[in-house]
Amino acid sequence: MIIDRIERLPRYFSLHPRIETAFQWLRSNNICAIAPGYYSIQGEDIKIKIQRYTTVPTPERKIEVHSRYMDIQCMIRGNEQFGYLPPERIEQPGIYDPERDIAFPDGTCDYLTLAEGSFFIAFPGEAHQTKCMRNKPEQVVKAILKIRVQD
């Protein structure tokens, strides 16, 4: 997992060739003006999910993990707490849904703040728990870049 500021995302282009294309799309669009939903940037290889929501208490959120896609979760407006669960600490892997590329494992996360203007990268196999409130519920706008890294 990587956490950094959105303006420093170009440092990570070498991790996968599709990251640069996704970043250019993110920077050339006003995310706050786009309706929530999924959008294709480059077929199934690069997608973006725009979200607007209010953060909730941590116990209300499931932990999730992906196998084929890397998540680059970019906090456009607001702040949230998110959990990170490394693969070696997953207690039960959960049932994998290949159509949605998601499973809901069990384990105990470590928590960090995803501040406005920041992003985190979760590679396949790195579980994460998002939309969690810090001290109180907060309205957020987030863009999740979904980069296919495995077929």
Concise account of the structure shown:
This protein has 1 helix and 9 strands, in the order E-H-E-E-E-E-E-E-E-E. The chain is mostly beta strands. The model has no long low-confidence stretch (mean pLDDT 97).
Features:
mainly beta; six-stranded antiparallel sheet; three-stranded antiparallel sheet
Would you mind describing this structure in some detail?
With 151 residues, the protein is mainly beta. It has one domain (2-148): YhcH/YjgK/YiaL (Jelly Rolls, Sandwich). Helices cover 7% and strands 40% of the residues. The protein contains one helix and nine strands; from the N terminus they run βαββββββββ. The chain has one helix at 18-27; strands at residues 2-5, 37-42, 46-54, 69-77, 80-85, 110-114, 118-122, 127-132, 139-148. The strands form two sheets. Strands 1-7-4-9-3-2 form a six-stranded antiparallel sheet, with helices on one face. It starts with a strand and ends with a strand. The mean pLDDT is 97.
What form results from the Cα inertia axes? globular
For the record, the count of structural domains works out to 1
Summarize the main sheet: 6 strands, antiparallel
What fold name goes in the CATH topology slot? Jelly Rolls
End-to-end separation: 21 Å
Could you tell me the mean pLDDT? 97
CATH architecture: Sandwich
CATH superfamily: YhcH/YjgK/YiaL
SS-derived structural category? mainly beta
SS elements, strand count: 9
Give the ordered list of helices and strands. EHEEEEEEEE
Question: How many alpha or pi helices?
Answer: 1
* CATH class descriptor: Mainly Beta
Low-confidence stretches: none
Which percent range fits the helix content? under 10%
